[in-house]
Design a protein that fits this description.
Radius of gyration: 28 Å
Strand order of the largest sheet: 2-1-3
Helix content: 40-55%
Mean pLDDT: 75
Structural class: mainly alpha
Order of helices and strands: HEEHHHEHEHHHHHEHHHHHHH
Distance between the termini: 78 Å
Number of strands: 5
Largest sheet: 3 strands, mixed
Oligomer: single chain
């Protein structure tokens, strides 16, 4: 957002922005000083270009909603995002029949399950058994055990990073945002479960703004769009099998990998790709859906990039669980039964 006084802003020339295909483009108007917040747009409105002479800018590849949110952020530092909507009219009717009660209301345990468990005094005095010392171990068995070579301690493979902990170079915590807060309130009080909602317009609003911010070199907006999309994904949690959100995820992944490129550094993933592929990997077992299968079989280069990064994260997660299971099982049997021990 431009840090300028109202006087300098409103005295600057006004540019006409034509959004969408030429035959049905919609017009928006913005001050040159506001557009100059972006170094890319600043070159268009202040340089010796056709756009500067005619005071017109063409945005044929952006959506009308995306352009409106983009300008809204330039002027006010925030943007309104469309909320998820019920998938069908039948869902609304059924919800009304249920009196607006959530189908996922929390279970209230009976009183006897909440009562504290009293440990008998005799049991409480028994020391905990350990591999180092056992009250049932004799001296001879202890010496024999000490001669058995112990298997090396297995190093646990780290788990896949949670969405809450994802970050990227230059990412910073957002300040308090009115629209983000309003969405959080809606998420906590809305009557529909995530399996009954269509998130397509919500996903695409944040994703398109991220892509626009990247193209026009607006890091603050890029950071905001990324973090707000992450918040939406976190609020969804684990998708229910067959829910419309799975199709929304497939659409989002296709768009993100089409509109973003791999980073120059081989060590860091492109932030938006990292976010989408991490969500898909964390909930891979529940994403069974024809549209997701189609995306996985796609021959387009961008879709193949998604599959490669997704499978890499799924493999990483499987390695973590395998190493965790191996550590829980203890040393291998052959390490505990050395034939050379008498």
């Amino acid at each position: 957002m431009a840090n300028a006084s109202p006087t300098s802003t409103f005295k600057s020339p006004i540019f006409e922005i034509r959004v969408g295909p030429p035959d049905r483009a919609e017009r928006f108007y913005a001050h040159a000083h506001i557009l100059s917040t972006s170094e890319v747009l600043k070159a268009e409105v202040e340089g010796q270009w056709k756009e500067n002479e005619e005071r017109k800018i063409e945005w044929p590849h952006w959506s009308v909603g995306g352009a409106e949110r983009f300008l809204e952020w330039l002027y006010g530092g925030d943007y309104v995002c469309p909320y998820p909507v019920p998938k069908t009219k039948e869902v609304i009717v059924e919800k009304a029949k249920r009196g607006g009660k959530k189908s996922t209301d929390k279970f209230t345990p009976p009183e006897f399950l909440e009562a504290p468990v009293e440990i008998p005094e005799a049991l409480a005095e028994i020391p905990e058994a350990s591999a180092e010392c056992s009250i049932f171990e004799t001296t001879s068995s202890k010496k024999k055990r000490e001669r058995i070579p112990q298997a090396p301690q297995k190093t646990l493979s780290p788990p896949l990073t949670r969405l809450q902990d994802l970050s990227w170079d230059g990412c910073r915590q957002l300040d308090k945002l009115t629209q983000a807060e309003e969405f959080d309130k809606w998420t906590g009080h809305q009557l529909w479960s995530t399996s009954e909602l269509d998130y397509d317009t919500t996903f695409m609003a944040h994703a398109e703004l991220y892509v626009m911010a990247h193209q026009y070199m607006l890091h603050e907006l890029k950071n905001m769009a990324w973090q707000r999309l992450r918040s939406v994904l976190i609020s969804i949690g684990k998708p229910a099998p067959g829910s419309p959100v799975i199709k929304n995820i497939a659409t989002l992944a296709h768009y993100v990998y089409q509109e973003t490129g791999a980073t120059e550094s081989h060590e860091a993933e492109e932030p938006l790709r990292l976010l989408v592929s991490s969500f898909a990997a964390l909930h891979f077992t529940t994403l069974k859906h024809p549209c997701m299968d189609e995306l996985m079989r796609s021959q387009e280069e961008a879709d193949r990039d998604f599959v490669v990064e997704l499978m890499g994260k799924v493999s990483h997660q499987m390695t973590h669980f395998e190493s965790k299971d191996a550590a829980a099982q203890g040393p291998a049997p052959e390490a505990l039964c050395d034939p050379w021990c008498g």
